[in-house]
């Protein structure tokens, strides 16, 4: 559906403003869709992001700073999110072999199991299926990269 119909407005200063409003609206739309899928597993988008980062790092551990650097939401409190994941037994804290003051973080077997389930439910193709083609998704991604570049 067109952004004008979604927000019931036809007044944009120009196409640049319309594009920004559309991006913000679409971010909320996608976020709500993903949250609905994650709520079934009682994890947040930020927790899901950290679990995916840790799985990608595995078997090497990660530090909180590495997680902060790689998280999609730069405003998130990675330390607090890791603590919640430890409580849920989805990640484990370990003492760093080289620096006893540093803490390493690894995904647990339970964390890997939940990601296996989520890999199916969170499929990007499934979310965009029937809405845009693979080529259109590539073009959109290229435009977004260009915008930030």
Count of runs of 4 or more consecutive helical residues: 8
Strand content: 5-15%
C-alpha Rg (nearest Å): 19 Å
Residues in helices, as a percent range: 55-70%
Number of E-type strands: 2
Q: Can you give a write-up of this model?
A:
- This protein is mostly helical and 149 residues long.
- It has two domains: 1-39, no CATH class; 42-148, Orthogonal Bundle (Arc Repressor Mutant, subunit A).
- The protein has helices at 3-7, 15-39, 45-57, 64-70, 78-87, 109-121, 124-128, 134-148; strands at 91-95, 103-107.
- Strands 1-2 form a two-stranded antiparallel sheet.
- The longest helix is centred in the first third of the chain and has 25 residues, at 15-39.
Looking at this protein, list some descriptive labels:
single chain; 149 residues; mainly alpha; two-stranded antiparallel ribbon; Arc Repressor Mutant, subunit A; elongated
Quick recap:
This protein folds into 2 domains: 1-39, no CATH class; 42-148, Winged helix-like DNA-binding domain superfamily/Winged helix DNA-binding domain (Arc Repressor Mutant, subunit A, Orthogonal Bundle).
Ordered list of secondary-structure elements with their pairings:
Layout: H1 3-7, H2 15-39, H3 45-57, H4 64-70, H5 78-87, E1 91-95, E2 103-107, H6 109-121, H7 124-128, H8 134-148
Antiparallel strand pairs: 1-2
